[in-house]
């Protein structure tokens, strides 16, 4: 078959990647694609799925967040659009939880909640997803001790990288807040000291004025007595 005709034929199969539409002819389309391209389409499909999952994990080991985001978005359709055609991958929930951690580390809270809304109730009960959700709640509540201690209870080894980044963020924020609090205390102490000095000077001024008034009163009384005599 002419390669160009083959391309035209396959682009009409909406059940193939990247659309993964659940069409009535999905099985037939996959069968034709396999025969035309001379390979087992299902095997190739699973192979690419496997490759993308390992690419995501590798990007974490390389500490490359840009690569993680790129690889994750290539992998995501396999979880969302093809979930009804193949059994779930054991790496699905750990990787989805990793993505939530990445968004939390990058302070992309709106996207964090958007991703949560796309997850099923079963996914939300998974320890990997719950770990990220509880972290976000602790972070928003300012319970930084819980955030730091959560590193000891990560549900997957790949989570350590993002947990370390989160710990650095917390340390930076708390250190900054401590510095601001110390500056505020010093400013308050300075203001209080200034108020005290002003009050003391005011008291001294009043005392001097009172003495002068008494002196003028005494002198006036003396002159009055002299005139009477």
UniProtKB/TrEMBL annotation:
One Gene Ontology biological process: proteasome-mediated ubiquitin-dependent protein catabolic process
Domain CSN8/PSMD8/EIF3K: 92-169
Entry annotated with the keyword Transport: no
Basic and acidic residues composition bias: residue spans: 209-229
Sorted UniProt keywords: Membrane, Proteasome, Transmembrane, Transmembrane helix
Xref: InterPro entries: 26S_Psome_Rpn12, CSN8_PSD8_EIF3K
Record region (Disordered): 191-229
Domain of life: Eukaryota
Transmembrane segments: 30-52
Gene Ontology cellular component terms for the protein in this record: cytosol; nucleus; proteasome regulatory particle, lid subcomplex
Keyword flag Flavoprotein: no
Protein name: CSN8/PSMD8/EIF3K domain-containing protein
Organism: Crotalaria pallida (Smooth rattlebox)
Lineage: Eukaryota, Viridiplantae, Streptophyta, Embryophyta, Tracheophyta
